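In response to reviewer comment 3 from the previous cycle, which asked for concrete evidence that the modeling workflow produces usable outputs, we include below a single protein chain processed end to end. The sequence was submitted unchanged, and the resulting structure tokens are shown without manual editing.
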Amino acid sequence: MIELSAEQADATGPADVVGPTQTKPEATAGARPETPKMFAASFRAMGSPCRIVVNDEARSAAVEAQNLIAELEGRWSRFLLDSEISQLNQQAGNMVVVSPATYTLVETACVARAATGGVFNPLMLSQLQDLGYSEAWVDAVSCSKNGNPDQKLDEGPIPTSSEEIQLFPELSAVCLPPGTQFDPGGIGKGLAADMATDLLLAAGATTTSVELGGDVRVSGRPWYGPSWRIGVTHPFDDNAEVAAFTPESGAVATSSRLGRCWEVGGEARHHLLDPDTGRSAQTDLVSSTACAETAWWAEVVAKVILIAGSDAANLRWSDLSTRGIAVTSTGAVLQSQTEPSAARFEQQETHEEVIAADGSVGAAGLEREVVNEEALEELTVDSTEGVMA
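The workflow returned the following structure tokens.
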């Protein structure tokens, strides 16, 4: 196990970053804080690079959390024909018994749909496929090839279902409205991060950081300083930050229309759909980031804000009681006016110790977390290419 020297600890500690209820510790003559021993597992899942970091005593729980994420991908991927979500979509209109985890996913999506007035709609997979996103994302070429060129964005809305998903908790069963398909999308990735975090905490982990394709969920005291600091990359400059969040615990997630975008018949399309039109959202925002207590809710809010656009962003942030930022197509940065206790917001220069966490939205809008890599023992676990996102 690698431990920092006193000089390294002085050089790498984010002394200027202080959480909302934390204070900088006073220096004690002749004594230096002990650098905690950490364990990190890096792997691929859900179409993205992932990382789990825990205090060293919980390393076995980190392996269990990685296995859980792989299991959830197998159950939830819309690109795996034998997944529970694929089976559920094939039997829309019929009641289908699912695993407790999949029931929780669908139930959570129903909660998100109700809380956002339907702006978040998990039943738009058919529309997304018609626009071209019908295969696991590799690049824009496959989506451009698969898209229907006869569907123009200015030719009126594509019908979307307003029917509710039926839930049968006593049976762990779900019934989708006839003719619809459920898309786990970002909420599935966020919920997987939350479930993995819950597993780690239940196993006794005191410090946890779960990164799934740009979604970051943290808890406990960070290994590199007194408070967490999660920076947000500028969508037009990978080497710059637009902001940073310093939650005591919680999650940060970003939605962007710059990463997963393609053209069909000369028309630009992306994967974030407006439920009013069933088409790629026509919005002046290129990215949206939210900080919340859970990763699934941060995912939902980030998507809703991006669809809403700059004119409605502040109202939406207020309605959803969630902190966030957004960047317009001109590079202007919007900041929410709400102040929930989950996080403090900063706008400052890029920290030299920031490590990028790549994610489903491509190069734009990725969260970055200040880490002290020398306190980690790294384990890279072989994993098949993720296909969920």
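Confidence is low (pLDDT under 50) at residues 1-32, 137-147, 340-373, 377-389. We consider this sufficient to address the reviewer's concern, and the full set will be provided in the supplementary archive.
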